[in-house]
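User: Hi! I'm working on a homework problem where we have to compare a predicted structure to a textbook description. Could you give me the structure for the chain below?
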Amino acid sequence: MAEYRVESRTYYSKLTTDKEHIAKSSAEEVQEILDTYAADGWRLVSTDATSFGLAVYVYLYFERERPA
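Assistant: Happy to help. Predicted C-alpha cells:
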C-alpha cells in the first residue's frame, strides 16, 4: 500500500524586473527537499503552485510504497 506526503513552501515576491526571481531563488531549497525525500524512498508524483497577493505557494506531492 502506498503512503503520501505533501510538502509546501511559501515564497514572497519582491519588486524587480526579473519575473523569474522566485524560481531562481527557491531552486536550491526545492532541490534539497527533493534530495532528502528521494534518499528516504519517496518519489515526486505531482506539483502545484498558486499565488495570492505577493506570495506564491508551492506544493510538492510525494509517494512511496509503505515498508513491510
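For your comparison, note the following. Helices lie at 21-39. The mean pLDDT is 90. Good luck with the assignment!
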